[in-house]
Amino acid sequence: MLEIRPLHPGDSLAELTALLHKAYARLGALGLNYTAVDQDEAATARRVAGGHCLVARVQGVLAGTVLLQPTYAQNDCAYFTQPGVAALHQFAVDPARQGQGVGRALMAAGEDWARANGFRELALDTAEPATHLVTLYRSLGYEPVSHVQWPGKVYRSVVLSKRLGGAGA
């Protein structure tokens, strides 16, 4: 049984960090230095404190996560500072659960959160060389809108966005 809910204060950040490492290992092996490849527990805590973190559990076991961030006042990616645009980050699904609908359910829950909070658009970014992820996001209705070169990253990211119906549309 799949449960998607907000991260609770008592949830283990060590467990969440381990999930991120496992889910991002393939990207790290490709030479893509995503933050989640090797972030420590303190970085996970800082990142989730800045947004709305959702977790997916299957039969009580952590299977995925996504972090939603309201519009930024300042950001290296100007697209994320536009009024009405929320950002989706730190999307991860345990490799053993990929292809079972966990990721799609997390993405849908993230879109629901954005709509419920008055956002008209949800944007995300991923490394251009991670073409499998660009393809996935496009299949979910996200379209390329910009690019960003994050400080310290060895790749350029493509920014993709999806216009949301409902509140704030």
Automatic annotation (TrEMBL):
Keyword vocabulary terms for this entry: Acyltransferase, Transferase
Residue stretches in coiled coil: none
Gene3D superfamilies in alphabetical order: 3.40.630.30
Signal peptide feature range: none
CDD domains: NAT_SF
Record PROSITE patterns: GNAT
N-acetyltransferase domain residues: 2-165
Protein name: GNAT family N-acetyltransferase
